[in-house]
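Sorry, explain these tokens?

___
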Amino acid sequence: MLARQVAMYIARELTQASLTEIGEAFGGKNHSTVIHAIEKVREQMEKNGTFITQVQNLVARIKG
């Protein structure tokens, strides 16, 4: 579940896709599910320095 939430967070950060579009790309999830995922990832990033580093590294690798 966390991996999907991180993927949704990254999709939101790196694309211009709407919440609905992101949800559809993740198996037909609705926009509120995407909002919840993004909020959960942000909460984890605030609490856990290792987690924020991991997410930042993923974003950097995707950007190339």
About this structure: The chain has a mean pLDDT of 96. Residues 23 and 43 are 20 Å apart (CA to CA). The first helix runs from residue 2 to 14.
